[in-house]
């Protein structure tokens, strides 16, 4: 059974933006390898021909991934991951989380304006 929590972000620190990004599974595995207070990478926000471009650059120490089925083999994970940005206008988003112990939570966020996904480049 899940605990349901509603988070209302209306009017709270309006000068700050909350980003929820769908991340490819292989990239989340690399993030798990980072030290507790380590940096996993950097986000760059820029404009090209008047259009916002966002990309994520993985920390170089996290670019090596063990190859499946090989003892000492490794594969390099790409460092640069462009975002796909899409205006969606006023949708409600639910985020589901489940811990290793099986405890789950559901968070409801309102007023989603832009859908953001990291492109799968691996």
From TrEMBL:
Alphabetical keyword list: DNA-binding, Nucleus, Transcription, Transcription regulation
Q: What is its main location?
A: nucleus
Cite the Pfam families for this sequence. Answer: TFIIF_beta_N
- Where do the TFIIF beta subunit N-terminal domain residues begin and end? 16-104
CDD domains per the UniProt record, alphabetical:
TFIIF_beta
* Superkingdom, taxonomy of origin: Eukaryota
Q: Name one GO cellular component term.
A: nucleus
GO MF annotation, one: DNA binding
Please state where this protein is localized.
Answer: Nucleus
Task: List the PANTHER family.
Answer: GENERAL TRANSCRIPTION FACTOR IIF SUBUNIT 2 (PTHR10445)
What name does UniProt use for this protein? General transcription factor IIF subunit 2
Source organism phylogeny: Eukaryota, Metazoa, Chordata, Craniata, Vertebrata
């Amino acid at each position: 059974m899940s605990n349901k929590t509603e988070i209302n972000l209306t009017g709270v620190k309006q000068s700050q933006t909350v980003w929820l990004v769908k991340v490819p599974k292989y990239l989340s595995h690399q993030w798990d390898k980072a030290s507790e207070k380590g940096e996993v990478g950097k986000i760059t926000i820029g404009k090209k021909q008047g259009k916002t471009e966002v990309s994520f650059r993985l920390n170089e120490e996290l670019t090596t991934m063990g190859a499946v089925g090989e003892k000492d083999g490794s594969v390099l994970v790409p460092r640069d991951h462009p975002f796909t940005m899409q205006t969606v206008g006023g949708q409600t988003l639910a985020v589901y989380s489940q811990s290793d112990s099986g405890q789950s939570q559901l968070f409801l966020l309102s007023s989603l304006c832009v859908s953001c996904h990291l492109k799968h480049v691996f």
